Amino acid sequence: MELGVVELSRLQFASTALYHFLFVPLTLGLAILVAIMETVYVMTGRPIWRQMTKFWGTLFGINFVLGVATGITMEFQFGMNWSYYSHYVGDIFGAPLAIEGLMAFFLEATFVGLFFFGWDRMKPVTHCIVAWLVAIGSNFSALWILIANGWMQHPVGATFNPDTMRMEMTDFMAVLFNPVAQAKFVHTVSAGYVTASVFVLGVSAWYLLKGRHLELAKRSITVASAFGLAAALSVVVLGDESGYTAGETQKMKLASIEAMWETEPAPAHFTLFGFPDKEARETHYAIHVPWVMGLIGTRSLDTPIPGIDELVAKNKDRIQSGIIAYDALMTIRADKDQVPADVRATFEAHSADLGYALLLKRYVDDPRQATPAQIQQAADDTVPGVGILFWAFRIMVALGFAFIAVMIYFFFRSSFKGQSYPRWALRLAVIVIPFPWIAAEMGWVVAEFGRQPWTVDGVLPTALSASQLSVGDLLFTLIGFVAFYSVLFVVEMGLMLKYIRKGPHIDVKETEAWMARHEARLTSDRGDKPYAAVPAGE
Length: 538
Known about the structure:
The longest helix has 36 residues. This protein has three domains: 356 residues, no CATH class; 35 residues, no CATH class; 74 residues, no CATH class. The radius of gyration is 27 Å and the shape is globular. The protein has 19 helices and six strands. The strands form three sheets. A two-stranded antiparallel sheet has the order 1-2. A two-stranded antiparallel ribbon has the order 3-4. Belongs to the cytochrome ubiquinol oxidase subunit 1 family.
Protein backbone atom coordinates (compact mmCIF):
# COMPACT_ATOMS: atom_id res chain seq x y z
CA MET A 1 0.00 0.00 0.00
CA GLU A 2 1.32 3.44 -0.88
CA LEU A 3 2.16 5.56 2.12
CA GLY A 4 0.67 8.54 0.32
CA VAL A 5 -2.75 6.86 0.37
CA VAL A 6 -2.61 6.45 4.15
CA GLU A 7 -1.44 10.01 4.70
CA LEU A 8 -4.11 11.48 2.42
CA SER A 9 -6.79 9.32 4.03
CA ARG A 10 -5.71 10.58 7.44
CA LEU A 11 -5.67 14.17 6.23
CA GLN A 12 -9.13 13.83 4.72
CA PHE A 13 -10.62 12.33 7.88
CA ALA A 14 -8.79 14.85 10.07
CA SER A 15 -10.09 17.80 8.06
CA THR A 16 -13.62 16.39 8.17
CA ALA A 17 -13.41 15.81 11.91
CA LEU A 18 -11.98 19.26 12.64
CA TYR A 19 -14.70 20.94 10.57
CA HIS A 20 -17.37 18.85 12.28
CA PHE A 21 -16.04 19.72 15.70
CA LEU A 22 -16.49 23.41 14.97
CA PHE A 23 -20.23 22.79 15.41
CA VAL A 24 -20.35 20.06 18.06
CA PRO A 25 -19.21 21.96 21.21
CA LEU A 26 -21.62 24.84 20.65
CA THR A 27 -24.50 22.40 20.05
CA LEU A 28 -23.78 20.53 23.28
CA GLY A 29 -23.57 23.65 25.39
CA LEU A 30 -26.31 25.78 23.83
CA ALA A 31 -28.80 22.92 24.17
CA ILE A 32 -28.32 22.95 27.95
CA LEU A 33 -28.30 26.74 28.26
CA VAL A 34 -31.49 27.06 26.22
CA ALA A 35 -33.19 24.43 28.40
CA ILE A 36 -32.11 26.31 31.54
CA MET A 37 -33.51 29.58 30.19
CA GLU A 38 -36.82 27.98 29.30
CA THR A 39 -37.01 26.42 32.75
CA VAL A 40 -36.66 29.89 34.29
CA TYR A 41 -39.40 31.11 31.95
CA VAL A 42 -41.76 28.34 33.09
CA MET A 43 -40.99 29.07 36.74
CA THR A 44 -41.37 32.85 36.52
CA GLY A 45 -43.62 33.43 33.51
CA ARG A 46 -41.55 36.47 32.56
CA PRO A 47 -41.57 37.13 28.78
CA ILE A 48 -37.91 38.15 28.73
CA TRP A 49 -36.91 34.54 29.43
CA ARG A 50 -39.11 33.32 26.60
CA GLN A 51 -37.40 35.82 24.31
CA MET A 52 -34.01 34.60 25.48
CA THR A 53 -34.97 30.98 24.90
CA LYS A 54 -36.18 31.69 21.38
CA PHE A 55 -33.19 33.84 20.48
CA TRP A 56 -30.48 31.49 21.68
CA GLY A 57 -32.55 28.55 20.44
CA THR A 58 -32.45 29.99 16.92
CA LEU A 59 -28.66 30.14 17.02
CA PHE A 60 -28.62 26.60 18.39
CA GLY A 61 -30.80 25.44 15.47
CA ILE A 62 -28.50 26.93 12.84
CA ASN A 63 -25.49 25.30 14.43
CA PHE A 64 -27.28 21.96 14.89
CA VAL A 65 -28.26 21.62 11.23
CA LEU A 66 -24.75 22.26 9.95
CA GLY A 67 -23.29 19.95 12.58
CA VAL A 68 -25.50 17.13 11.35
CA ALA A 69 -24.48 17.76 7.74
CA THR A 70 -20.78 17.44 8.54
CA GLY A 71 -21.22 14.52 10.96
CA ILE A 72 -23.02 12.24 8.51
CA THR A 73 -20.10 12.43 6.09
CA MET A 74 -17.70 11.24 8.78
CA GLU A 75 -19.60 7.99 9.26
CA PHE A 76 -19.56 7.29 5.53
CA GLN A 77 -15.79 7.75 5.51
CA PHE A 78 -15.33 4.65 7.66
CA GLY A 79 -16.55 2.60 4.72
CA MET A 80 -15.07 4.71 1.94
CA ASN A 81 -11.60 5.55 3.22
CA TRP A 82 -11.07 3.03 6.03
CA SER A 83 -12.65 -0.17 4.72
CA TYR A 84 -10.13 -2.57 6.24
CA TYR A 85 -10.53 -0.87 9.61
CA SER A 86 -14.31 -1.29 9.30
CA HIS A 87 -13.87 -4.96 8.40
CA TYR A 88 -11.36 -5.63 11.16
CA VAL A 89 -13.15 -3.99 14.11
CA GLY A 90 -16.63 -3.29 12.77
CA ASP A 91 -18.28 -5.72 15.20
CA ILE A 92 -17.20 -3.55 18.13
CA PHE A 93 -16.89 -0.05 16.70
CA GLY A 94 -20.16 -0.23 14.78
CA ALA A 95 -22.32 -1.07 17.81
CA PRO A 96 -22.04 2.30 19.64
CA LEU A 97 -22.50 4.20 16.39
CA ALA A 98 -25.64 2.20 15.57
CA ILE A 99 -27.05 2.85 19.05
CA GLU A 100 -26.21 6.54 18.67
CA GLY A 101 -28.19 6.71 15.43
CA LEU A 102 -31.17 4.69 16.69
CA MET A 103 -31.38 6.16 20.17
CA ALA A 104 -29.71 9.54 20.54
CA PHE A 105 -29.85 11.08 17.07
CA PHE A 106 -33.52 10.22 16.44
CA LEU A 107 -34.42 11.49 19.92
CA GLU A 108 -32.55 14.70 19.30
CA ALA A 109 -33.81 15.24 15.75
CA THR A 110 -37.45 14.51 16.61
CA PHE A 111 -37.59 16.87 19.55
CA VAL A 112 -35.68 19.60 17.74
CA GLY A 113 -38.66 19.84 15.38
CA LEU A 114 -41.10 19.98 18.28
CA PHE A 115 -38.97 22.64 19.95
CA PHE A 116 -39.06 25.00 16.99
CA PHE A 117 -42.61 24.40 15.79
CA GLY A 118 -44.35 23.68 19.06
CA TRP A 119 -44.22 27.01 20.84
CA ASP A 120 -47.89 27.83 20.25
CA ARG A 121 -49.08 24.21 20.18
CA MET A 122 -47.88 23.00 23.56
CA LYS A 123 -48.19 24.14 27.12
CA PRO A 124 -45.10 25.90 28.51
CA VAL A 125 -44.24 22.99 30.80
CA THR A 126 -44.53 20.49 27.94
CA HIS A 127 -42.39 22.64 25.69
CA CYS A 128 -39.80 22.94 28.45
CA ILE A 129 -39.67 19.14 28.70
CA VAL A 130 -39.07 19.05 24.93
CA ALA A 131 -36.16 21.49 25.34
CA TRP A 132 -34.57 19.23 27.94
CA LEU A 133 -35.08 16.17 25.72
CA VAL A 134 -33.23 17.97 22.92
CA ALA A 135 -30.38 18.69 25.34
CA ILE A 136 -30.34 15.09 26.59
CA GLY A 137 -30.38 13.77 23.02
CA SER A 138 -27.41 15.97 22.08
CA ASN A 139 -25.40 14.71 25.02
CA PHE A 140 -26.43 11.10 24.41
CA SER A 141 -25.06 11.42 20.87
CA ALA A 142 -21.75 12.58 22.28
CA LEU A 143 -21.77 9.71 24.77
CA TRP A 144 -22.10 6.91 22.19
CA ILE A 145 -19.67 8.48 19.75
CA LEU A 146 -17.09 8.88 22.49
CA ILE A 147 -17.66 5.30 23.64
CA ALA A 148 -16.70 4.24 20.12
CA ASN A 149 -13.72 6.58 20.09
CA GLY A 150 -12.70 5.56 23.61
CA TRP A 151 -12.56 1.94 22.48
CA MET A 152 -10.08 2.95 19.78
CA GLN A 153 -7.93 4.52 22.50
CA HIS A 154 -8.28 1.60 24.92
CA PRO A 155 -9.69 -1.55 23.26
CA VAL A 156 -11.45 -3.59 25.94
CA GLY A 157 -14.21 -6.20 25.84
CA ALA A 158 -13.01 -7.69 22.54
CA THR A 159 -10.66 -10.36 21.25
CA PHE A 160 -9.09 -11.33 17.95
CA ASN A 161 -10.53 -14.43 16.28
CA PRO A 162 -7.81 -16.17 14.24
CA ASP A 163 -10.39 -18.11 12.25
CA THR A 164 -12.23 -15.02 10.96
CA MET A 165 -9.22 -12.64 11.09
CA ARG A 166 -11.37 -10.03 12.83
CA MET A 167 -11.83 -8.50 16.24
CA GLU A 168 -15.03 -9.67 17.94
CA MET A 169 -16.87 -8.26 20.94
CA THR A 170 -16.79 -10.39 24.07
CA ASP A 171 -18.11 -7.98 26.73
CA PHE A 172 -20.39 -5.11 25.74
CA MET A 173 -20.49 -3.77 29.30
CA ALA A 174 -16.71 -3.45 29.29
CA VAL A 175 -16.95 -1.40 26.09
CA LEU A 176 -19.75 0.70 27.57
CA PHE A 177 -17.98 1.43 30.86
CA ASN A 178 -14.52 1.79 29.36
CA PRO A 179 -12.77 4.24 31.74
CA VAL A 180 -11.11 6.06 28.83
CA ALA A 181 -14.47 6.57 27.10
CA GLN A 182 -16.14 7.82 30.27
CA ALA A 183 -13.31 10.27 30.99
CA LYS A 184 -13.39 11.52 27.40
CA PHE A 185 -17.15 11.98 27.50
CA VAL A 186 -17.32 14.13 30.62
CA HIS A 187 -14.28 16.13 29.57
CA THR A 188 -15.60 16.73 26.04
CA VAL A 189 -19.12 17.74 27.02
CA SER A 190 -17.76 20.06 29.73
CA ALA A 191 -15.60 21.70 27.07
CA GLY A 192 -18.76 22.12 24.98
CA TYR A 193 -20.49 23.81 27.90
CA VAL A 194 -17.57 26.22 28.21
CA THR A 195 -17.71 26.94 24.47
CA ALA A 196 -21.41 27.81 24.59
CA SER A 197 -20.99 29.87 27.76
CA VAL A 198 -18.18 31.93 26.23
CA PHE A 199 -20.26 32.36 23.07
CA VAL A 200 -23.34 33.58 24.98
CA LEU A 201 -21.15 35.79 27.14
CA GLY A 202 -19.41 37.36 24.15
CA VAL A 203 -22.56 38.00 22.12
CA SER A 204 -24.29 39.48 25.18
CA ALA A 205 -21.25 41.69 25.85
CA TRP A 206 -21.47 42.93 22.26
CA TYR A 207 -25.10 43.91 22.84
CA LEU A 208 -24.13 45.86 25.95
CA LEU A 209 -21.37 47.65 24.06
CA LYS A 210 -23.92 48.60 21.40
CA GLY A 211 -26.58 49.56 23.97
CA ARG A 212 -29.07 47.05 22.54
CA HIS A 213 -31.27 44.39 24.14
CA LEU A 214 -29.90 45.25 27.57
CA GLU A 215 -32.30 43.10 29.60
CA LEU A 216 -31.61 40.02 27.52
CA ALA A 217 -27.86 40.63 27.52
CA LYS A 218 -27.55 41.12 31.29
CA ARG A 219 -29.58 38.04 32.12
CA SER A 220 -27.72 35.99 29.51
CA ILE A 221 -24.37 37.01 31.01
CA THR A 222 -25.60 36.00 34.45
CA VAL A 223 -26.64 32.54 33.24
CA ALA A 224 -23.58 32.04 31.04
CA SER A 225 -21.06 33.12 33.69
CA ALA A 226 -22.55 30.88 36.39
CA PHE A 227 -22.91 27.87 34.10
CA GLY A 228 -19.59 28.58 32.41
CA LEU A 229 -17.69 28.82 35.69
CA ALA A 230 -18.96 25.42 36.80
CA ALA A 231 -18.15 23.97 33.38
CA ALA A 232 -14.66 25.52 33.20
CA LEU A 233 -13.77 24.14 36.62
CA SER A 234 -15.13 20.76 35.52
CA VAL A 235 -12.97 20.78 32.40
CA VAL A 236 -9.82 21.16 34.49
CA VAL A 237 -10.85 18.48 37.01
CA LEU A 238 -12.03 16.06 34.34
CA GLY A 239 -9.00 16.80 32.19
CA ASP A 240 -6.91 15.65 35.14
CA GLU A 241 -8.90 12.40 35.08
CA SER A 242 -8.12 12.02 31.36
CA GLY A 243 -4.44 12.47 32.19
CA TYR A 244 -4.66 9.72 34.78
CA THR A 245 -6.37 7.28 32.39
CA ALA A 246 -3.71 8.08 29.76
CA GLY A 247 -1.06 7.25 32.35
CA GLU A 248 -2.75 3.91 32.90
CA THR A 249 -3.61 2.93 29.33
CA GLN A 250 -1.59 5.09 26.87
CA LYS A 251 1.81 5.58 28.44
CA MET A 252 3.48 6.59 25.18
CA LYS A 253 0.94 9.35 24.62
CA LEU A 254 1.52 10.73 28.13
CA ALA A 255 5.30 10.59 27.78
CA SER A 256 5.09 12.34 24.40
CA ILE A 257 2.82 15.08 25.76
CA GLU A 258 5.47 15.69 28.42
CA ALA A 259 8.41 15.23 26.03
CA MET A 260 9.73 12.90 28.75
CA TRP A 261 12.54 11.13 26.95
CA GLU A 262 13.92 9.24 29.93
CA THR A 263 12.15 7.72 32.90
CA GLU A 264 12.58 9.98 35.91
CA PRO A 265 12.43 9.17 39.61
CA ALA A 266 8.97 9.52 41.13
CA PRO A 267 7.20 11.86 41.44
CA ALA A 268 7.74 13.08 37.89
CA HIS A 269 7.83 16.79 37.19
CA PHE A 270 5.60 18.70 34.77
CA THR A 271 7.36 20.58 31.98
CA LEU A 272 5.77 24.01 31.93
CA PHE A 273 7.74 25.26 28.92
CA GLY A 274 10.40 24.04 26.56
CA PHE A 275 11.33 23.11 23.01
CA PRO A 276 11.26 19.35 22.37
CA ASP A 277 13.97 18.04 20.05
CA LYS A 278 13.09 14.56 18.80
CA GLU A 279 16.40 14.04 17.06
CA ALA A 280 18.51 14.93 20.10
CA ARG A 281 16.04 13.24 22.49
CA GLU A 282 15.92 16.25 24.81
CA THR A 283 13.83 19.32 25.58
CA HIS A 284 15.73 22.58 25.33
CA TYR A 285 15.19 25.45 27.82
CA ALA A 286 12.79 23.31 29.83
CA ILE A 287 11.07 24.83 32.88
CA HIS A 288 9.87 22.15 35.29
CA VAL A 289 7.25 22.13 38.05
CA PRO A 290 8.12 19.39 40.58
CA TRP A 291 5.74 16.52 41.37
CA VAL A 292 2.82 17.72 39.23
CA MET A 293 3.01 15.13 36.44
CA GLY A 294 3.49 12.36 38.96
CA LEU A 295 0.27 13.36 40.68
CA ILE A 296 -1.62 13.71 37.38
CA GLY A 297 -0.35 10.53 35.76
CA THR A 298 -0.19 8.14 38.72
CA ARG A 299 -2.14 9.75 41.62
CA SER A 300 0.88 9.01 43.78
CA LEU A 301 4.29 10.29 44.78
CA ASP A 302 6.17 7.01 44.48
CA THR A 303 5.21 5.65 41.03
CA PRO A 304 7.49 6.62 38.12
CA ILE A 305 6.16 7.52 34.68
CA PRO A 306 8.12 5.63 31.99
CA GLY A 307 9.95 7.76 29.48
CA ILE A 308 9.86 7.50 25.70
CA ASP A 309 13.13 5.58 25.42
CA GLU A 310 12.00 2.94 27.92
CA LEU A 311 8.65 2.56 26.17
CA VAL A 312 10.33 2.18 22.76
CA ALA A 313 12.45 -0.64 24.20
CA LYS A 314 9.34 -2.35 25.60
CA ASN A 315 7.56 -1.95 22.27
CA LYS A 316 10.51 -3.57 20.52
CA ASP A 317 10.05 -6.59 22.77
CA ARG A 318 6.34 -6.58 22.00
CA ILE A 319 7.07 -6.54 18.27
CA GLN A 320 9.24 -9.62 18.66
CA SER A 321 6.51 -11.30 20.70
CA GLY A 322 4.01 -10.30 18.02
CA ILE A 323 6.11 -12.00 15.36
CA ILE A 324 5.68 -15.25 17.29
CA ALA A 325 1.91 -14.66 17.33
CA TYR A 326 1.94 -13.87 13.59
CA ASP A 327 3.84 -17.07 12.84
CA ALA A 328 1.31 -19.12 14.83
CA LEU A 329 -1.54 -17.29 13.09
CA MET A 330 -0.17 -18.16 9.65
CA THR A 331 -0.01 -21.81 10.71
CA ILE A 332 -3.61 -21.67 11.91
CA ARG A 333 -4.69 -20.11 8.62
CA ALA A 334 -2.83 -22.75 6.60
CA ASP A 335 -3.89 -25.83 8.56
CA LYS A 336 -7.41 -24.63 9.41
CA ASP A 337 -9.19 -27.59 11.08
CA GLN A 338 -6.01 -29.58 11.78
CA VAL A 339 -4.16 -27.02 13.88
CA PRO A 340 -2.00 -28.58 16.61
CA ALA A 341 -3.02 -27.60 20.12
CA ASP A 342 0.43 -26.24 20.91
CA VAL A 343 0.19 -23.80 17.98
CA ARG A 344 -3.09 -22.40 19.23
CA ALA A 345 -1.63 -22.20 22.73
CA THR A 346 1.35 -20.28 21.37
CA PHE A 347 -0.94 -17.89 19.56
CA GLU A 348 -3.06 -17.28 22.64
CA ALA A 349 0.04 -16.64 24.73
CA HIS A 350 1.31 -13.94 22.33
CA SER A 351 -1.94 -12.70 20.70
CA ALA A 352 -1.97 -9.49 22.74
CA ASP A 353 1.14 -8.40 20.82
CA LEU A 354 -0.06 -9.34 17.32
CA GLY A 355 -0.79 -5.72 16.47
CA TYR A 356 2.85 -4.78 17.16
CA ALA A 357 4.02 -7.32 14.58
CA LEU A 358 1.62 -5.73 12.09
CA LEU A 359 3.60 -2.48 12.41
CA LEU A 360 6.27 -4.24 10.35
CA LYS A 361 3.86 -4.52 7.40
CA ARG A 362 4.87 -0.98 6.55
CA TYR A 363 8.37 -2.24 5.74
CA VAL A 364 8.02 -5.92 4.85
CA ASP A 365 5.18 -8.09 3.56
CA ASP A 366 5.90 -10.90 6.00
CA PRO A 367 6.80 -9.68 9.54
CA ARG A 368 8.69 -12.96 10.09
CA GLN A 369 11.23 -11.80 7.50
CA ALA A 370 11.88 -8.46 9.21
CA THR A 371 15.48 -7.50 9.90
CA PRO A 372 16.64 -6.18 13.30
CA ALA A 373 16.87 -2.72 11.74
CA GLN A 374 13.26 -2.90 10.56
CA ILE A 375 12.13 -4.08 13.99
CA GLN A 376 13.91 -1.12 15.58
CA GLN A 377 12.39 1.22 13.01
CA ALA A 378 8.89 -0.08 13.76
CA ALA A 379 9.54 0.38 17.49
CA ASP A 380 10.63 3.98 16.85
CA ASP A 381 7.41 4.53 14.88
CA THR A 382 5.40 4.05 18.08
CA VAL A 383 6.52 7.54 19.17
CA PRO A 384 3.98 10.10 17.89
CA GLY A 385 4.84 13.70 16.98
CA VAL A 386 6.25 14.91 20.29
CA GLY A 387 6.51 18.60 19.41
CA ILE A 388 2.92 18.83 18.14
CA LEU A 389 1.52 17.03 21.20
CA PHE A 390 3.67 19.04 23.60
CA TRP A 391 2.44 22.42 22.36
CA ALA A 392 -1.16 21.41 21.60
CA PHE A 393 -1.58 20.20 25.17
CA ARG A 394 -0.13 23.36 26.67
CA ILE A 395 -2.23 25.66 24.52
CA MET A 396 -5.33 23.72 25.58
CA VAL A 397 -4.45 23.87 29.28
CA ALA A 398 -3.50 27.56 29.21
CA LEU A 399 -6.79 28.47 27.55
CA GLY A 400 -8.69 26.32 30.07
CA PHE A 401 -7.33 28.32 32.99
CA ALA A 402 -7.97 31.58 31.11
CA PHE A 403 -11.66 30.64 30.74
CA ILE A 404 -11.87 30.06 34.50
CA ALA A 405 -10.52 33.56 35.13
CA VAL A 406 -12.98 35.13 32.66
CA MET A 407 -15.95 33.30 34.15
CA ILE A 408 -14.96 34.16 37.74
CA TYR A 409 -14.77 37.84 36.83
CA PHE A 410 -18.15 38.02 35.09
CA PHE A 411 -19.80 35.85 37.74
CA PHE A 412 -18.52 38.25 40.42
CA ARG A 413 -19.73 41.32 38.51
CA SER A 414 -23.12 39.69 37.86
CA SER A 415 -23.65 38.58 41.44
CA PHE A 416 -22.14 41.38 43.50
CA LYS A 417 -21.79 44.45 41.29
CA GLY A 418 -25.34 44.85 40.06
CA GLN A 419 -24.65 43.47 36.57
CA SER A 420 -22.40 46.39 35.70
CA TYR A 421 -19.39 45.70 33.52
CA PRO A 422 -16.49 47.92 32.41
CA ARG A 423 -16.23 48.41 28.69
CA TRP A 424 -12.77 46.84 28.62
CA ALA A 425 -14.23 43.64 30.11
CA LEU A 426 -17.04 43.59 27.56
CA ARG A 427 -14.54 43.99 24.73
CA LEU A 428 -12.47 41.18 26.21
CA ALA A 429 -15.54 38.92 26.30
CA VAL A 430 -16.10 39.55 22.58
CA ILE A 431 -12.44 38.88 21.74
CA VAL A 432 -12.46 35.60 23.69
CA ILE A 433 -15.34 34.09 21.64
CA PRO A 434 -13.20 31.99 19.21
CA PHE A 435 -10.75 30.68 21.81
CA PRO A 436 -12.84 27.76 23.15
CA TRP A 437 -12.85 26.32 19.63
CA ILE A 438 -9.07 26.58 19.50
CA ALA A 439 -8.84 24.76 22.85
CA ALA A 440 -11.28 22.07 21.67
CA GLU A 441 -9.40 21.48 18.43
CA MET A 442 -6.12 21.25 20.35
CA GLY A 443 -7.75 18.67 22.60
CA TRP A 444 -8.69 16.53 19.63
CA VAL A 445 -5.16 16.84 18.22
CA VAL A 446 -3.82 15.52 21.54
CA ALA A 447 -6.35 12.68 21.66
CA GLU A 448 -6.12 11.50 18.05
CA PHE A 449 -2.62 12.46 16.92
CA GLY A 450 -1.29 11.10 20.19
CA ARG A 451 -2.72 7.65 19.35
CA GLN A 452 -0.54 7.26 16.25
CA PRO A 453 0.70 5.01 14.72
CA TRP A 454 -2.45 3.14 15.71
CA THR A 455 -6.03 3.29 14.51
CA VAL A 456 -6.91 1.02 17.42
CA ASP A 457 -4.25 1.36 20.07
CA GLY A 458 -2.01 -1.72 20.15
CA VAL A 459 -4.33 -3.66 17.84
CA LEU A 460 -4.45 -2.24 14.31
CA PRO A 461 -1.84 0.11 12.78
CA THR A 462 -3.09 3.08 10.80
CA ALA A 463 -0.95 2.05 7.82
CA LEU A 464 -3.07 -1.12 7.40
CA SER A 465 -6.48 0.46 7.96
CA ALA A 466 -7.02 2.46 4.80
CA SER A 467 -8.97 1.46 1.71
CA GLN A 468 -7.30 0.55 -1.57
CA LEU A 469 -7.76 3.92 -3.24
CA SER A 470 -5.60 5.93 -5.59
CA VAL A 471 -3.81 9.13 -4.65
CA GLY A 472 -5.79 10.92 -7.35
CA ASP A 473 -9.12 9.79 -5.90
CA LEU A 474 -8.11 10.99 -2.46
CA LEU A 475 -6.80 14.35 -3.66
CA PHE A 476 -10.00 14.98 -5.62
CA THR A 477 -12.29 14.12 -2.70
CA LEU A 478 -10.09 15.96 -0.18
CA ILE A 479 -10.29 19.16 -2.21
CA GLY A 480 -14.02 18.64 -2.62
CA PHE A 481 -14.60 18.11 1.10
CA VAL A 482 -12.53 21.12 2.09
CA ALA A 483 -14.28 23.33 -0.46
CA PHE A 484 -17.75 22.11 0.53
CA TYR A 485 -17.12 22.42 4.25
CA SER A 486 -15.61 25.87 3.78
CA VAL A 487 -18.82 26.93 2.08
CA LEU A 488 -20.83 25.46 4.96
CA PHE A 489 -18.64 27.32 7.44
CA VAL A 490 -19.21 30.60 5.60
CA VAL A 491 -22.95 29.89 5.54
CA GLU A 492 -22.88 29.15 9.28
CA MET A 493 -21.02 32.36 10.07
CA GLY A 494 -23.28 34.40 7.81
CA LEU A 495 -26.48 33.05 9.36
CA MET A 496 -25.19 33.39 12.92
CA LEU A 497 -24.07 36.98 12.37
CA LYS A 498 -27.33 37.83 10.63
CA TYR A 499 -29.48 36.66 13.52
CA ILE A 500 -27.16 38.14 16.14
CA ARG A 501 -27.40 41.55 14.45
CA LYS A 502 -31.15 41.11 14.13
CA GLY A 503 -31.47 40.31 17.84
CA PRO A 504 -34.39 38.70 19.66
CA HIS A 505 -38.00 38.99 18.57
CA ILE A 506 -39.86 40.98 21.20
CA ASP A 507 -43.53 40.04 21.56
CA VAL A 508 -44.94 43.40 22.60
CA LYS A 509 -48.43 42.13 23.44
CA GLU A 510 -47.10 39.32 25.60
CA THR A 511 -44.73 41.70 27.39
CA GLU A 512 -47.43 44.30 28.01
CA ALA A 513 -49.84 41.66 29.29
CA TRP A 514 -47.25 40.35 31.71
CA MET A 515 -46.40 43.87 32.90
CA ALA A 516 -50.08 44.56 33.52
CA ARG A 517 -50.40 41.40 35.61
CA HIS A 518 -47.20 42.28 37.44
CA GLU A 519 -48.39 45.80 38.23
CA ALA A 520 -51.69 44.39 39.46
CA ARG A 521 -49.85 42.11 41.85
CA LEU A 522 -47.73 44.93 43.20
CA THR A 523 -50.63 47.37 43.71
CA SER A 524 -53.18 44.89 45.01
CA ASP A 525 -54.88 45.93 48.23
CA ARG A 526 -55.48 42.31 49.19
CA GLY A 527 -53.32 40.91 51.94
CA ASP A 528 -52.71 37.60 50.22
CA LYS A 529 -50.62 39.09 47.43
CA PRO A 530 -46.87 39.63 47.62
CA TYR A 531 -45.79 43.24 48.03
CA ALA A 532 -49.38 44.17 48.88
CA ALA A 533 -49.90 47.88 49.54
CA VAL A 534 -50.41 48.78 53.20
CA PRO A 535 -53.93 50.25 53.72
CA ALA A 536 -54.06 53.92 54.73
CA GLY A 537 -54.11 54.55 58.42
CA GLU A 538 -52.09 51.44 59.41
